[in-house]
Design a protein that fits this description.
single chain, mainly beta, Immunoglobulin-like, 3 domains, 6-stranded mixed beta sheet, 5-stranded mixed beta sheet, 4 helices, 30 strands, globular
Amino acid sequence: MTKLTKKTIKRTILLFVGCLVAGGVAHGADFYLRTGVITNVMPDGRSVVMWAFAQDTAFEARNGTLTVPGPALTMPPGDSNLTIHLDNDLPEPVSIVIPGLISTISPVPSRMGDGRATSFTHEAAPGNVAPENYGWTNVAAGTHLYFSGSHSAVQVQMGLYGAIKRDAAAGQAYAGVPYSRDVTLLFSEIDPALHDAVADGTYGPGEAMTSTVDYLPKYFLINGVSYTNGLLHISAGVAGDKILLRILNAGLGLRTPTLNGAYAQLVAEDGNKLPYPRQTYTVPLPPLTTMDAILTASTAQSLAIYDRRLGLVNGTNSPGGMLAYLDVNMNLLLPANGGMLRSYTSQYSGAYAAAKLTDGAMGAAYYWLSSASPAVPQSFVYTFSNNSPATLSQAVVYNYGEGTRNRYSKGFHIDVSSD
């Protein structure tokens, strides 16, 4: 019998035992998360190894997609209890914590041989054969950040974080705080030197990099994407909507999200409703914290939101980084989730081109032709499924003539050039 077969059988047996142990966990909203390794390509072409979460339908189902940030978890308003079942495919123990929420299981710190704590809750061992269960009761309405509570200086930076939200009632972020639509803006950063050291095993005691003391991020992101080529637009709603901005910081440094040309009402911090809303266009956002603000745009416009502390580069290239545009009533065919796509270059001869697009996390796309600034969107192009290729039809690119044209598909920049 192979080692893999033995492990699979053992996991099946212990999964049943794990379910019995989990009987003490209060049930309500249940999510299955799995960790794993992915490689993301930065705007300047550099590949960075990331640790990521995926949301599966069951333990070991392995039918979710590993992403950074991790999947956004939405609790129904009627559920105040939360359970996360963790499957760890990383080479070191992982755990999950959510600051400010009350755990249903008494946390037992994991310790090294000398007694130092490595995590303030129980951990999922590498290759765990039964789900490690984490539970919380009386989950407060609002926006929260979940992340690994193990070796957090490294594991959070590597990508183990995501947003979780729960409304007080349908259409109400908090009691007395209604909204029409919400937009999540998760700020994060990447120090490629740290990622390289972790990936090649040269991080830790006695290695070339021993800690994150010299942490120096080079890439700055919103929702896992860096601004590039003027294309980081997020559909925010229509004029008159009360737009709930859920702002989170998964980085290790202070960020200052700033709206350009508009004010918003700050209504909550870390899932705690403020006694009185505060009108502002900028807020300091410490590491691993969240803010909620209501933006009401009276006219159609594209509002810039950026980091005032100048996390505005992609490596050595600028402008870039933590800069995005909130499109209000811009008549663009954008999906609700606000996912972004990367660049792709295609060649064509004559009047026909077949450009393949790869979806990041979206349901529909638009495109336009432009020589300088975006023109009026031309027409609906394609409906995507997650991470699957799609091909533009001949009709889409027919009779555009020779030469270079720019097509934009929700942040996906396509150069179609003559042979």
